[in-house]
Amino acid sequence: MTDLPQRATSSRLDPYADRYAARTAGMTVSEVRALFAVAARPEVVSLAGGMPNISSLPLDVVGDSIKDLVMTQGPTALQYGGGQGDPRLREQICDVMRLEGIEAHPDDVVVTVGSQQAVDLVTRVFCDPGDVVICEAPSYVGALGVFKGYQCDIVHAEVDSEGLIPSALEQAIVSTKASGHKVKFLYTIPNFQNPTGVTMTPARRTEILEICRRHDILVLEDNPYGLLGFDDEPRPAMRAQDPGVIYLGSFSKTFSPGLRVGWALAPSAIREKLVLAQESATLCPPPFNQMAVSAYLSNHDWQGQIKQMREMYRERRDAMLDALEAYMPASCTWTKPDGGFFVWLTLPAGIDCKAMLPRAVTARVAFVPGTGFFADGFGASSMRISYCYPTPERIREGVRRLAGVIEAEMELLETFGATGPIPGLPIRGAEHPSTNTQ
């Protein structure tokens, strides 16, 4: 009998562990993706995922546009395309960005496979192992995963109800430089931030840009939610103030996440590097998907559709805030977003939300523990809860169930002491009027 290959008989959990590149050590399972299987169970109210609610999309219009695309432009749509993206779509992307005060040329737009790939390409182009990326505290888990995967050191700068705190950014830059490390860029989500829901004020945006100019640091502005504000016209992007900002956008939140079409707007020298990186990664972003988005923008009142989405998400946001007021213990605080998908809920210090999650799932409600949004272990007593996908009725029921779990945890804390590490809190309800202290 022939002996089996050594790798098949190894008793190690992963027999290939000693063969992987060092950068794979930074590849970990996302706190959000790890919840998908549980949160998808029908009896569980999921306040965890940030899935856009596409129920209001005119699927008949979308279907007709795609049918017409295949019938009239099929040989082009189903063929390879250019690494920079479809020229017509890049023109339309400039029209979309104009709503946020950005005047851009299509030649400076690079279409990507969602804005997630744009984060990856920018990091690949700029960062060597050990370089520093400054991120908000907390920050988007998907971006943190990219930075870790490229072996970057992540330095956090605190946010409050007005967004990234300029003094915290200045301190992060100065201390990083003093330690002999190089800051490659600031990664920020200024509008309806994921995970906190807070929005950077106009004055803060100007100050943040000035700090970065003074220290010669690039700004990477990630703006997937910018057109989904509830009360105001779209806020001017940071890129509208400074043409040196690298701006990332996406159609995932305003049309279809499944088509995976995003973009980067960058200065011309950077754009060329992004195109080369794109070509080495995918040869080209999928032409069919790009042309489907382009057809939708051409054949449908997409701005009217976004208005419908804003109204739908505002109703769900209101349902969540009302339920938090009605059910949450007085010692909990939360943000009050005026757009986007998320609320950041903070519990009394000493409660470990990650340790609490299995008990919440048992009570048929899911959330994302706050530790997933930090690179340094903080955020244990906070969580991200999402209102974008469930109906208002399900949101209220989910918050009611969650409040019951939290009350039980607080009783355990009072009886036995802390259930987990005591974290630093990035949002302090006692200090900022946009958080609730009741």
Q: How many angstroms separate the termini?
A: 72 Å
Q: Which sequence of SSEs, written as H and E, runs from N to C? A: HHEHHEHEHEEHEHEHEEHHHEEHEEEHE
CATH topology of the largest domain: Aspartate Aminotransferase, domain 2
Shape: globular
Architecture of the largest domain, CATH level 2? 3-Layer(aba) Sandwich
Query: In the CATH hierarchy, what is the class of the largest domain?
Result: Alpha Beta
Explain what this protein looks like in three dimensions:
- Its cofactor is pyridoxal 5'-phosphate.
- Keywords: Aminotransferase, DNA-binding, Pyridoxal phosphate, Transferase.
- Belongs to the class-I pyridoxal-phosphate-dependent aminotransferase family.
- One of its GO terms (molecular function) is pyridoxal phosphate binding.
- One of its GO terms (biological process) is alpha-amino acid metabolic process.
- The chain has 14 helices and 15 strands.
- Helix content is about 40%, strand content about 15%.
- α5 (about 115-125) packs across α10.
- The protein has two domains: about 20-50 and about 305-415, Alpha-Beta Complex (Aspartate Aminotransferase, domain 1); about 80-300, Type I PLP-dependent aspartate aminotransferase-like (Major domain) (Aspartate Aminotransferase, domain 2).
- Residues about 5-10 and about 420-438 have low confidence and may be disordered.
- An eight-stranded mixed β-sheet has the order 2-9-8-7-6-3-4-5, with helices on both faces. A five-stranded antiparallel β-sheet has the order 13-14-11-10-15.
- The chain has helices spanning about 5-10, 35-40, 60-75, 85-100, 115-125, 140-150, 165-180, 200-215, 240, 270-280, 285-300, 300-325, 355-360, 390-415, and strands at about 45, 110, 130-135, 155-160, 165, 185-190, 220, 245-250, 260-265, 335, 340-345, 365, 370, 380-385, 435.
- β3, α6 and β4 (about 155-160) form a beta-alpha-beta unit.
- The longest helix is centred in the last third of the chain and has 26 residues, at about 300-325.
- It has about 450 residues and is an alpha/beta fold.
- The radius of gyration is 22 Å and the shape is globular.
